[in-house]
Design brief:
3-stranded antiparallel beta sheet, 2 helices, 61% helix
């Protein structure tokens, strides 16, 4: 019982530092995921852009899926790929 009480007291004494550390860890993880997602979409958009060159392109997202569309003329789009 003595050891459990020591552990509980240690957590109480260091609770602020533990919460700050967890907050920094969560923020870092979320930021890393955001950067990875942004890079993935940027790379896919670049591939779409080069596939449609010299025409203009649209990389249209629907949730987590996306598709590449190239302009044939001012009002017509043609889907590229799957």
């Amino acid at each position: 019982m003595k050891y459990i009480q020591m552990i509980i007291n240690w957590f109480k004494k260091n609770l602020v530092l533990i919460l700050i550390g967890l907050s920094i860890l969560i923020y870092t993880f979320a930021n890393l995921q955001s950067v990875e997602t942004k890079n993935k979409y940027s790379e896919e958009d670049f591939i779409c852009q080069t596939s449609c060159f010299p025409q203009q392109h649209e990389y249209i997202y629907a949730g987590i899926t996306a598709s590449c569309w190239c302009y044939v003329n001012k009002s017509t789009l043609q889907k590229i790929g799957n």
